[in-house]
Amino acid sequence: MNAFPPDSSDTDPQTEPASLRVLRRLVATLMVVMILGVLVIVGLLVTRLSADRAPTLPETLPDNLALPAGAPPEAVTLGKGWIAVVTGDRQILIYDANSGKLRQTIQLD
Known about the structure:
Keywords: Membrane, Transmembrane, Transmembrane helix. InterPro entries: DUF6476 (IPR045519). By secondary structure, this protein is α+β, with helices and mostly antiparallel strands. It has 2 domains: 8-51; 56-109, no CATH class. Helix content is 32%, strand content 23%. The protein has a 4-stranded antiparallel beta sheet, with no helix packed on it. A hairpin with a 2-residue loop joins strand 1 and strand 2 (82-87). It is rod-shaped, with a radius of gyration of 35 Å. The termini are far apart. The mean pLDDT is 82.
């Protein structure tokens, strides 16, 4: 005869304590939420950083801009209502974007 009472875990291996069952469900829910969160972040990065949304810049200067003779353009900056051209002779020429007239000349040191 066995002097010890039968243990409930020995009799039915399929039963588990309620706290363990709750913990198992919480872990599974957390895993699903984290996977969905990573997928959402990756989706947002892909849609926000796609090459199709990148602004396109003109490859040539507008025809209405007249650069001084012997001043090759090195850089162009487009702003709202103005265009700045950095020339090879160390000047910044600021033009009106609509009319193409020279607004200001800045000499670089």
